[in-house]
Amino acid sequence: MRLHAIPHSTNVARVALALGLKGIALEATVQHDPADRAAVQQLSGQPLVPVLETDDGRVLTDSMAIVAWIDATWAQPHPLYPADAAARREVEGFVTFFDHVWKVAPNAIEAEQARAAPDRDRIAAWAAQLRGWQHGFDALLHGRPYLFGDAPGAADVCAHPFLRFATSSDPEDDDLFHGVLLEHLALRPGEHPRLTAWIDRMAELPRA
Ligand SMILES: N[C@@H](CCC(=O)N[C@@H](CS)C(=O)NCC(=O)O)C(=O)O
To answer: Which sign does the torsion angle of CA 33, 10, 78, 87 carry?
Structure first.
């Protein structure tokens, strides 16, 4: 399998983490120039990464759809989604929240900051929303090491590549969206200790 990527991509990191947890190796990770998506567009019909070329000739797009495919293809011994239907729906609900609600705020902040005269009040409101949600992630980690249980699963794979910016930065990463995450997720010492410990725990897991 070949994974198409751009440097420092959060959504690509989800796929690398899912494969790592499954113990599945890639033939190659193909790094593209963020400013030139022609090859990705030609391969997949859209410009965004990740794109996964599978061994049986599929071309898959959209990180969490790829993670669901990986989980369905190599279900055992480390399932990423629960087998129980209700528990699975809870995790799917988290993934939907993360991608379609949580991500709105940092994307909106990035877009507002790019305007000639950014509206500081709007940025502050989105930033407050992001900080408020950190309580929720910390609460999900009460009495368990991962967001929905005792083993890392799809929710952890979904959230960690983004929430990790609360505690760490990469000096070579100059992505503006990641700058927004660094600024607005940063945790003060002692704040949300369960979330901080989970970020460290997740960082230790294997990646493809
Ligand atoms: N919903 C897509 C989003 C993919 C996405 O936004 N990928 C970013 C990299 S993390 C990208 O290719 N951005 C290119 C751009 O915005 O020009 C997914 O989850 O895979």
So the answer is: negative
